[in-house]
Specification:
Layout: E1 17-23, H1 29-32, E2 33-39
Antiparallel strand pairs: 1-2
Length: 61
């Protein structure tokens, strides 16, 4: 069995921005989807966690 590693972080390690896909208006995905920076909401409430996503699928259908 391999050991699992858990990384703890503090607010000091959280970046100020994140990459996002934004739908800017109605239309075909290639015309309305924009890749942009957005602020990270790092103010977590009791019981909330912030996760780092390495990859995600986008299906604009």
């Amino acid at each position: 069995m391999s050991a699992k590693h858990t990384t703890m972080t503090t607010e000091k390690n959280i970046p100020a921005t994140q990459k996002t896909w934004r739908v800017t208006r109605k239309g075909k995905p290639e015309q309305v989807l924009k890749f942009a920076d957005a602020p990270v909401s790092a103010k977590l409430k009791q019981g909330e966690v912030l996760i780092k996503v390495q990859a995600a699928a986008l299906n604009p259908v």
